[in-house]
Amino acid sequence: MISGLLSLGRLLWGLLRRLLWREDLQFIVHCLFLLWMMSFLRAMFSAVTPTASYEAASIAWSLVVKDNALLLRAIHDRRFPSLQSLQTLRQLLVVFLVIPTVVLLAARRKLRWTDWEAGKSLRVMVMVMLVTLAWSGSTFEYNIYLDRGHALDRLLLVALTLMSWRTPLAVPFATRWSIVMLKEAYVPIPLDDFDFRSVPEVLIVFSCFTWASLHKSFKTRHFLLVGLGAWASYYYAAGMAKINYGPSWSWFLENHISNISANAHVRGWLSFLSDSTFSKGVAFIRRFDLALAGYTLLIELGALVVFVHPRVVRTWVLLCALLHFGIFAFTGIFFWKWMVTNLAFYFFLRYGGSTIVKQMCRPRLVVLFAIAMVYNSRGRGYFYPQTGVAWYDSKFMENYVLYAIGKSGHKYLIRPGYLAPMDTHWTQGRLCYATNERSITGIYGSTGNFPLLQKLEALSTPEEALKLLSTGGVCTNVKRRAIFDEFFTRYFGNLNHHDRGLQWVSWIGAPRHLWVFPKGDLYDRQEPVEKIELWRDLVVNQGEQLHHLEMKLVHTVPIPP
Which of 185, 333, 397, 451 fits as disulfide partner to 445, beta carbons 3.0 to 4.6 Å? Predict the structure, then answer.
C-alpha cells in the first residue's frame, strides 16, 4: 500500500512538473509575481511627501533626514517587523529603493538593457516615458509661493534620468523622484494627478520587473503584458464609469460633449476666436456628439480586448493617441504625456518589439489572463486606475476670474498660467469654495446631476439658468477659503518684493496640461499688488451664442505691504 501511494505521489508530481513547464503557465506565473510586487510597492512609489520637505531648501536632503529619523525610531521602538512599521516604511523615500538594488548588486546581477530581449528598443520606450515625467518635473517655473527654486532637486532628477539610459537599475529612483517633483504643485492645494498618473504606473511595473529580473527567467514579454495591462486599465475603468454613471447609458445617449468645448472657450481656450465664431463651431460639433461619445467608449472599453492580436494592440494605442489629440483640439485639455506614451508603445510594438508582442499574444491562456487582469483592475491593489472619470457636460458655466489691483488702483487680469506651478487648480477655475455664492456646476460646467442637465438642455431663454442657480447649494468652505487667502497673500507678497527666479527654465519647460489664454490687460509685475479680486461670470451657451448673464465681485484678498 505504501509503495502504491509513493507511485501515485510520483505520478502526481510528474504531472504537476509537466504542467508547470508549460510555456503559457510559466508566463502567467511570472506576471502574477509582478502583480504581487505591484500590490506592495506601488503605494511606496506614490507615498505623500510632507509639505515641510517642499518648504525646505532641498527636498531630497529633507527626505533623507526624515527617512533616517523614522528608521531610527522604528529600530529604537523594536517595532520594525510589525505592521505599523510597514506603514512607516511606506513613508520612506530611499530605503525601499535601495534594498532591492543592493540585493541585485550583491548577487552580482549587474543588469544591462541588453540582458533582455529587444533590450535596446525597450530602453527607448521606457526612456521616452521617463523623460516625459522628468521634463515636467525639472522645468516647471520657479515656485514663488514657496519662494524656492529647488535647483539641486531638479538637477538630481536630470541626473537620475541620464543614469537610467546607462542602467535600468536607476529607473526606479528616477520614477520615484519624478513623482516627488511633480507633486510640488500640490502645495498648498491638493490636485488630481490624472494628467500624469498613468505614466508612472507603467514605469512602476518596469521597476518591479527590473528587481524581479534577479531571476533570469523574467523576459521582456512579461513586462510588456503587465505594463500594457496597467495602461489599459485606466481606459477601461473610465469607460465603465461612463456606462454606470447616472441612468443606464445616459452619458452616451443624453450627454452633449460639445458643451465642454464652449465652456473651455469661456475659460480662454482659442481666445483669438470671437465668441460668436466659436459658438457656431460648437453648434456644428454638436451634431456629432453621439458619434464622439461612441468613439470614446469604443476606445475605453476596447482596452479589455487589446491583447487578442498584435495588430489590435498597435491600432488601439494609435486610436488612443488620436482620442487625446481630439480632446486637446476641442477643449485645450492636453494629455500630452498620455499621447507620447501611446506613441512610444506603438513604435516598440511595431518595430523593435514586434517579435515580443507576437509571443505575448500567441498563447490563448495568456490572453485570457490579460483580459481578466484588466477586467478586475478596478478597486484592486495591483493597479490604480481612476474610477470616477465620468460627468455630464452642461451648457451653463460658472466662470471665476481673478484680478490683481495694483498700487495705482489699476485692475489687471491674472492669467491662470501665471500662478505656476500651481496653475492647474486656478485654470480649472472651480473657486466657488472661496465665496458665499450658490453653485450647480463644477469644473468647465460639469455636473453629476442628470435631472439638472435635462433642465439646462430644455432652457427656453438663457436667463432661466439663474432660476436654477438659485436652487443650488452654497459651496462655501471656510478651511479651503483660508488656504485660498493664504496662497494669494503669500504668493503676491513674495512677488511684490522680488521677481520670479529661474525665469530661463520656462523657455525649456514642458507643455501645460490645461491651455487657456484669456484676453485682457494681463498682470506681469507692472507694479506692486495691493488686492486680489475674485469675480464670477455666469455664461450660458444657447442659440449659437455665449450669453454672459452676470458679472459679480464675490471675494477680496488684501495683500499686506
Answer: 397
